Each structure stands twice: as C-alpha cells, then as structure tokens.
Amino acid sequence: MSTIHREDEVxxxxxxxxxxxxxxxxxxxxxxxxxxxxxxxLAVSGLQIxxxxxxxxxxxxxxxxGLLEGLAGIALIYLALLVAESVAHFIQRYVMxxxxxxxxxxxxxxxxxxxxxxxxxxxDRNPVGRLMTRVTTDVENLNEMFTQGLVAVxxxxxxxxxxxxxxxxxxxRLSLVTFAILPVVLVVAQVFRTHAREAYRLVRTKLAVINxxxxxxxxxxxxxxxxxxxxxxxxxxxxxxxxxxxxSLRTMLYFSLFYPGVExxxxxxxxxxxxxxxxxxxxxxxxxxxxxxxxxxxxRFFAPIRDLSEKYNIMQAAMASSERIFELxxxxxxxxxxxxxxxxxxxxxxxxxxxxxxxSYTRGDEVLKDVSFLIAPGEKVALVGATGAGKSTIAGxxxxxxxxxxxxxxxDGVDVREYELSSLRRRxxxxxxxxxxxxxxxxxxxxxxxxxxxxxxxxxxxxLTGADHFVERLPARYKEAVRERGVALSxxxxxxxxxxxxxxxxxxxxxxxxATSSVDAESEAAIQRAIASVTEGRTCLIIxxxxxxxxxxxxxxxxxHGELCEEGTHASLxxxxxxxxxxxxxxxxxxxxxx
Length: 595
Description:
Number of helices: 20
Helix content: 55-70%
Shape: elongated
Strand order of the largest sheet: 6-9-10-3-11-12
Distance between the termini: 37 Å
Radius of gyration: 35 Å
Structural class: alpha/beta
C-alpha cells in the first residue's frame, strides 16, 4: 500500500480581489446582516474608545479635585458603556456566525451539486479525499474568513485608527513616545508572518497526508488484515503522525514567541509612557487622568496589531481554499451535456448505432479505435474480449458517462448528444460489475427516493431478479436498514439488489457489465431467468468474461485492443477459429490460444 499522498496545499496571497469579488456574490443575499454586523462592530470600537476617556474625566474632574459629587454618575456611565459593549459584541458575533453558516450552507450545496454535473473522468483523476476536502475543510476555511477574518480585520483596523486619533487628541507628545516603539512591532509582526505562513502551510499539508492515509487504510482494512499488514501500516502512520506533530509544534513555537514578544514590546511602551508621562504629571504639564487614559489606550492599541498577524493566516488559507473551490466550480460540465433542455426522452425503441467511434481516457492512448456496429431494437448482443479491450468503455459511452473523442453514437437514429441527459439515462439501465448500495433501507436503495417508483414496482423487480428469497427473510423486509456500502449483505445479494434497482425503472435498453460475475451459480441462474423475461422487446447489451452466459445472445461482438474484430453468433464464431474461439477454448478446455 502506498504511503505517498500528494496534496495541492498552496498558500498564496492574503487578499485576491478577483477571488474576493466572486466570494462576495454569496454574501449578497445576506447584505443586511453583514451591514448590521459591521455597524455593531463600529459601535463596539466606539464604546471601547470612550471608556478610558470616561475614566480620565473621573480622575481629573472628581478624584483629583476631591469632588465626590457626580462620581456615582460617572461610574454608572462607565458601567453602561461596558454593558453596552458586551451586548453589542454578543449580537455582532452571533449575527456574523449565523450569517457565515448560511453562506457556507449555500456554498457547500453549490459544490455538491457541481459534483453531479462533472464528467466521470474528473472523478477518475481526483482522489475522493481531495474532493471531500473541497466540501469540508476548504469551505470551513472560508467560514473562518467571513466570521473571524474579514469583518474582524475591518474591526481591528477601525479600532486601531480610533485609538490613534483618541491618543493624538489627548496629548500629541505622549502619542509620539508611544508610537516610537511601533516600527519594532511591525518588524516583529512581519518576521512572525513570514515564518508562521510556511509553518502553517506545512501543518495543513501534513494533515492532508494523515487524512488521505486514514481514508485509504480504513477502506482497505480487509486487505491489511488478510496480508498481516498491520505493523507496517502502524509504522507508516506513526511516521506521518510524527511529521504532523513536528509541524504543529513548530507553529506553536512561532505563536509562543510572537505573542509574548508583542506583550514585551507593549510593556516597554507602557514603561516609556510611565517614565515620560509620569514626569509630565509631576511637573504639572499633564493631568493624571490623561496618563491613565493613555495607558489604557496603549494596552488596547497593541491588541489589534497582534490580532492582525493571526488574521493574516486565516485570510491566506481562505484565499487558497476559495481558489480551489472556484477551480472545481469552473470545471466544464460533461462535454456537450445538457442536463436540461434538448430532446426529452419518453421512450426508446432501442436502435443503437456506433458510427466510427474513437475514445481515449488520456490523450494519445486510444481505448476504442474506429468502432462501428448496429444493434436493432429488441436485439440481445454480447460484447466479449480480453481485459482492457474496451467493453466497459462502450457501456459508459452509451449512457454518456463519457463522451467519444471521435465519431457518433446514435439512439433511434438521433445523436445521443441531442437528448436531454437526465431523461436519456432513465431509459437506459446499467448494471455494473461492482454493486454499490447507499446507507438507507432496501426500498430506498431500489427506488433511490424517486416517488414515481411505487412499492408494487419495487416488489416486482425484487421478485423478478430472485432477490426476494433473502429480502423476505430480513426482519423488516423492504424497510430493513442497509448499512454503508451494504457490508452486512453478501456480494451476490448486493448485486441482486442493484439489478432490481435497474429493473424498477423499466428501462428500454439494458446494459449488463459483468452483472453476474459476483454471484453464485444459483443467483446467476435467477438473474439469467430475469434477463430472459425483461429483455423481451428490449435492446440488451451484455458484457461478459464468462462466455457461458452469452451463448444464447442473438449476436456476439468481439473486441481486441479497442477494435471490433469479429461479429456473429456463438456457433459461427467458433467455426471461424478466430479470437472468440481461442477465448472459448482457453476458458473451457484450459488450452492456450493459438498464435
């Protein structure tokens, strides 16, 4: 099992105007809430700035002069400012968090819907873990930006500017003394940002490696245990877990140095204020209340600076996540596909034609080469050939899971690209070699939640495939819960249910891609009887390695290295002594094919 996992974790600019404009489209529906949150944030900043000035008045106008009259009123005003700040801060955070969750809900829904419109080749190229990250981690990064980054940065800037103005208005000379330490703060913040950015990127990369390894290991746990691979897997996980721990500790080191560093600089600034301002107070050039207010303003001045450096990482990660999300959303839909619009398919007669079709998954590596054949309505045709000959590719092309790179595919004389995709696929039933069941009941796995699939139709499909022999024995029968991927059922039982799922939709064309390869002889016999019943009047394309399952086909098409080499009935192909005959002899007589 490979322990190498690539992750496209790249941190770019902390602000990208192009990306931000696209993100703000998702905010438009919640403009009122965002504006209200910003106004509340301004109110919080204003209330915070007023508090030291109220203390100045209390000291200079009352305590300094020994006047107690009116001091209670000042105290109540100060208390009211604190309460108002707390209430405004609570409402602002709640509104922003709620708005952020609404925006993320919309974005997650958009991304998930996009998955359903992407070509299957996109999922072939991208690991599942990476695609899941788009809906989970990347969206959560954007949530942090909206709730803790963007608005908070605005609030920090407003707060810092307000404090600077208040300090300058109080005493210009003392303000210069305070700001003398500012270049040192900026240098420290820049050094921290540079090193923390790289450390933060490394943490996210290592976390992605852990997630990918866990997903692979859990999915392949049966193989790990069968081949006694536990110790090696444990060592591999321990190694990448150690790397993640090291990266995390490195990040913590920078944060542990930065915050005390800023506190130390702030303490030095306060010491300068006390030294210079204290001397001014003693000389009578500065009031004690002004000095106290200055100290409070100085303490609050360094808080936004410290927060801005932390928000820088949030903004940086959010920009990288938004770029990846928009890259996914900008991925072209299935080539030429119209999910809606086009010619709607109510029924198909079932005439299928491949006209000089070429196809390749990757450029320069053709899987199908100039394949042409015609299947008449109601005809049962088998596709055979060695592994990699292109049989399953043909099945994927018929219902447009993939698009041909050359040539045409026609249904009832019409290019399949002219049909509305969703209605086309409802008329074509495809049973795959590897059955897949969702979490839910037996009934839900067959109907897939479609209201038009009635209970009688589900039971008919189950009986026709022979799946009723085990469904009827389940405690809740059709309401029985199917666990993830149907792990409580045998492979054959899962295949029977997936076959019943296709039949319940009453398709006009059936494509069986190694549909009986995973079932036992009894189940295969039941499916073969079902096929004989349901293919009456329907076009049926059967892909099979086991040649015994297709001997009764009307015609057999033989593929070899992506080319259609032979065509005919079982008997005529045996007489030709070609590729089909050699495959047949190899399978049933144990002889090597002739050269």
